[in-house]
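Researcher: Batch entry, complex prediction.
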Amino acid sequence: MNCNVSNGVGLGLRWEFLDEVLNCQLDALAKISFFEISPENYMRRGGHFPAALERVAALWPISTHGLMMSLGSTEPFDPEYFDELRRFLGKFGGAWHSDHLSFSSSDGVSLHDLLPVPFNHATARRIAARIREAAERLERPMLVENISYYTTLGRSELAEPEFISDVLESANAGLLLDINNLDVNAKNHGFDPWSWLSRIPLDRVVEIHVAGPEPYGDGLLLDTHGSPVRDSVYELLAWVLERTGPMPVLLERDNNVPSLEALLVEIRMLASTYDAAVNRWAMRQGGRNAA
Amino acid sequence: MQPEMPSGAPLQRALVDFIRRSTAAAEMRKDPRGFFLAHGADSVDADVGLDETLAERFQLYRQLVLGRLREALQVSIPKTLALLGSERVDHELDEFLAVRGPRSAYLRDVAPEFVAFAEVLWVGDKSTPRFIPDLAKHELLSFEVAAAKDDEVVTPIGDISVETVLSFQHATRLAHYGFPVHELPEGPNEVPVLEPRDCSILAYRDTELSVRYLELSDLGAALVTRVMTGEPIGEATANAHLDTESRITDDSLASVAMLLEDLEQRGILRGSQSQKASP
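Model: Structure tokens for the complex:
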């Protein structure tokens, strides 16, 4: 079993093409450095999909990205969920586990969406404590992902980058930087993504996600993971990698899922951007070392 | 003294309440400050409700949540949804979200939660085809069997005697319906006419992990029910005849033997052990 997430470009493993991956010539998938899964889709169940995952995990490193930890909730964690997840990560997981900087449940009701939390100091402290608790329960470091949001809640004491920084520092957690979410938020809320990037702790970025949104009626972009990665995301990705160096970069596609062949074309484009950016990073490192 | 509410909780509750109740939008538009204050927000946070786009964005979240729940139902109970019709499903999903809401954090649990909630509505409504609850349960059964946990240990069946206790494939489920919903064709567009008929369906996974069904006779269903609960074959056979008020004959015993052989060949029986004699 491969248990360490590789640097390079990976693909979110979806049931739409899971069998195709297993039946594909391995050479065709050479540019895929790792696959990422949501454990909740495989936990607490048997049958075809967990069996297929075992076969994938024998060939590629697997990273795990959760959907339902609801780090922003105010209710206690479900210990059964954590026990199950810890067992699952023990079998399939990589060096870390990630989930979202959001909430999805309240008063016992689970809404199955990533809802925004208020950007204030007290919420940052509360979420940081929950991230630390989650890492302890899972016995591995946690990464948290910046979400796309369509509104803020209440009066924001902090701007999003400062809120994220506060959470990460207090929780001593890594950042799963979702550049598509940044791009979508920048367009929807009218802020400068470059300024945003300059205000987050890049040294805490451990993994990157990219995807494509879809337009919505009143000029919004919806984070559906339903289209190819936008040019603006490629530019932001290159900028970040030039400063961070190599790390796992994941392509997510959840809606309008095209053929695996089409996804591989996009993987190759991302790998090209990745290689060029990491080369520039290496040259900068060389220059610094020489100086 | 009331326990202190965690920071952010009032605002998060306001959003959740808005998402869950279709009437919340009108309440918020009528009195945006009051909407947040009613959820415990302080007056500064409540002032953000005055932003006119906020209600639209809250409405967007509500649509996203309903859309996700609808997708989860579509994956699990597509025939039931098609026969109920889009408008009705939307209405019942609205009601489900407002009154009960999904409790499990696993998205695949939404469909059984919804069916458990809506079944009461379907049974109480004369315009709903009477087979709809059975159909929904049958579609859920397929999903449940496909996702059931795998068997950890499979032991050879070996020689079978009247004292043998059989174990079943973990995924096996026995369901009883009042209508033959398992015979409905794929791709339902028109509401079919189904005559009531009691049927017992044994659902299981084949060696390729695909879900298969086996319709059982009354005696077969009674036998399987008892064998699944751990009764030795001899005892289960006698009790199954009593359950179905049928006499034990050479033919009935032959049918029991054939059924057990069939279950073994299909991989439904996964092990056996001889019952130890009582001291």
